[in-house]
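Q: I'm writing up a methods section and want to include an example of the input and output format. Could you take the sequence below and give the corresponding predicted structure tokens, formatted cleanly so I can copy it straight into the document?
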Amino acid sequence: MSDLPADEADDAKSENRYQRFVGWIFENHYKPGDVRVEWTRNELNDAAEALGLEPVRNLGDAVYAIRYRISLPKKILAAAPAGSEWVIRGVGRAKYAFDLIPAQVRIKPNLALTLTKIPDATPEIIASSALGDEQALLALVRYNRLIDIFLGVASYSLQNHLRTTAKGIGQVEIDEVYVAVDRFGRQFVIPVQAKGGLDEIGITQTEQDLAVCAQKWPAMICRAVSAQFADDGRIALFELALQDNQVRVRREAHYKLVPSSDVTEKDLQEYSMSADSVDL
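A: Here is the clean output for your methods example:
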């Protein structure tokens, strides 16, 4: 028999084991009024033992899933006052903190935006072999030079899935890093987040991307980008910034990869009119 109240027992049954682990860790440390709750990666297996569940084999992947792929358990959500929410930040090597921050504005593709058709340059063997939403999305962005088109720069993919560390944060993984130059000779470093399925753009990954770029490439201008599939197959690109402890959108544009024959004369006329309205 569970010694939890019936409603809490039902919640526990509906949550996966990672959610139960992180809920146990939070409960172990949290005191009413706390705005930061620190914990370590090894506590995941302390939680597994306490809950009688299978231990975690890959702690790094487990933390990544908890931070970016699954929602926090209800007991943590319930501990946030109105207008606030909990996020998990890295605070050192294998060290993390639940931080209470102002509730974030949810960034989702705005389907009211105009859609730009781009002739699909993805090699067929890549299109047929890509594994998973994020991998497919990164490949589509790379082969169709969508970073160049979106930001108006000449960009070059530097590294996929960069795993590194950032001072005061710990281990960080960036989905893809580009370097770029514009017509004035300015040089940029562009960290790209790939969001597939129901994944949301969050403050912690943007903070980490910006921190890594500032530390590793201090002479280059950092422009953080997120790419996301929308429901109708379009690719939404966002240029992100941090403002007032919130992730904000500097620019958003939507592209659809199509056979070149699907780009009509009417499309080209509309794009020409749009370009004429921009001070080049």
